[in-house]
Design a protein that fits this description.
- This protein is of the alpha+beta class and about 425 residues long.
- The chain folds into three domains: about 180 residues, Nucleoside diphosphate kinase-like domain (Alpha-Beta Plaits); about 130 residues, Nucleoside diphosphate kinase-like domain (Alpha-Beta Plaits), CATH 3.30.70.141; about 70 residues, Alpha-Beta Plaits (2-Layer Sandwich).
- It is built from 18 helices and 15 strands.
- The strands form four sheets. It has a six-stranded antiparallel β-sheet with strand order 1-2-5-6-4-7.
- The two termini are about 45 Å apart.
Length: about 425
């Protein structure tokens, strides 16, 4: 439902649409939706294509929050296209933009509008009409543009540009808001199996980062055939078991601990269906569809529940402990050192400040007894207070192989 407001100002026709929560009688509170500014330029308006273009927007799920039909002034055009002022065609561009009425629009899409800037720019295509027709023939500029810079449509180039253009053209527009979901930061286990890891590691890791995941844990490890068979023991009744074991033990694989909002479902959505044929048919952009090797086994694993994620992360990244000592000559900077320890991802389970005796120093450094500096080392360690800590090493910061045990896995992740 919408509240419509019509206003006339300097002979302009301007329509604003503001979303209301009619169940409570108040504006929806929360985060402002993402928006972009679009302009249907004089060439498309003169051809009578404005309504046709707006219909195409709506078919793609784009919502028009505000619109205004008018002729831009020379000053306005020069301000909006100031980034092109050094171009040879700048004056011609300004003449074109101010040659007749344009439609100014504020657009959003979906519940949050987060992708509207990219969505709209993808929809309109390259700036140059000839390039648009060659590279993106279905784009709006390819369909409605005349030539060169007479490309029918404008879209904000970035969130900063959108904010500037919104303030410039629609200074009084109240942007609709949405209730932003509280983040549920999770960790999940991801496995890139050996063939994909060997051939496409950097490309896959780049996609993981682009999807908003933080790689909290990282380990390269090579399983023996027996370890792989034990790891997937619950699958041994299935016909693909031998091929799965061979695939998992044919070289190093990469185990990752991924973190982000709703990491478990987000990673599994990114992977796509476990069956390769189904992934290609129903989710061609998924990782399992994009990275297919000759083994017939999909190249990725993802935990399917929080319980499974915890178990699998513990399996690949077991918690380990060590003792750390801040020596007497560094006690003056102990707070800074402890801060660095935390920043590196370590957790301090227990801490004590004490004077180390000679007996304790000898226990700490038995391998140094035959060194020339041993007496000075003991003297230094016993010269004043030290800070000792039982430090828990965050999983994944140690890249030490260890015997693998059994872990529960979703059967759908293999075939």
């Amino acid at each position: 439902m919408y509240l419509w407001h019509h206003s006339l100002h300097r002979r302009r026709r301007c329509v604003f649409r503001v979303a209301l929560n009619l169940s409570t009688g108040s504006y929806t509170s929360g985060e402002a939706k993402g928006v972009t500014v679009a302009i249907i330029k004089p060439d498309a308006v003169a051809q009578g294509k404005a309504d046709e273009i707006k219909n195409e927007m709506k078919e793609k799920g784009i919502e028009i929050l505000a619109e205004e039909e008018r002729t831009l002034t020379d000053e306005e055009a020069r301000e909006i296209y100031s980034d092109l002022k050094e171009e040879d065609f700048f004056d011609e561009l300004i003449n074109f933009i101010t040659s007749g009425p344009s439609h100014l629009l504020v657009l959003t899409r979906g519940a949050t509008g987060e992708t509207i800037i990219k969505d709209w720019r993808d929809m309109i295509g390259p700036n140059n009409v000839e390039e648009a027709r060659a590279e993106a023939p279905d784009s709006l500029r390819a369909k409605y543009g005349e030539k060169g810079y007479m490309n029918a449509l404008h879209g904000s180039s970035s969130s900063e540009a959108a904010a500037k253009e919104l303030a410039f053209f629609f200074p009084n527009l109240a942007i609709p808001t949405y209730q932003k979901k509280k983040e549920n930061i999770q960790r999940t286990l991801a496995i890139i199996r050996p063939q994909a890891f060997a051939q496409k590691k950097d490309e896959i890791l780049a996609k993981i980062n682009e999807a908003g995941f933080k790689i909290a844990m990282y380990k390269e490890i090579e399983l023996t055939r027996d370890q792989a068979a034990e790891f997937y023991k619950e699958h041994e009744e299935f016909p693909y078991f031998e091929q799965l074991v061979e695939t998992m033990s044919c070289g190093p694989l990469l185990a990752l601990g991924l973190a982000r909002d709703e990491a478990i479902s987000a990673w599994r959505d990114m992977l796509g269906p476990a069956n390769i044929d189904e992934a290609q048919e129903t989710a061609p952009d998924s990782l399992r569809a994009q990275y297919i090797m000759d083994s017939g086994i999909n190249m990725f694993h993802g935990s399917d529940t929080e319980e499974a994620a915890k178990k699998e992360l513990d399996y690949f990244f077991p918690l380990e402990q060590t003792v750390a000592v801040i020596k007497p000559n560094a006690m003056g900077t102990k707070d800074a050192i402890i801060e660095k320890i935390h920043e590196a991802g370590f957790r301090i389970a227990a801490r004590k400040e004490t004077v180390i005796t000679q007996e304790i120093a000898e226990i700490l450094y038995p391998h140094c007894k035959d060194k020339e500096y041993y007496d000075k080392l003991v003297e230094s360690m016993t010269s004043g207070e030290s800070s000792t800590a039982n430090t828990r090493i965050v999983r994944g910061l140690l890249f030490k192989s260890h015997p693998l045990g059994v872990s529960g896995h979703d059967r759908r992740d293999t075939k």
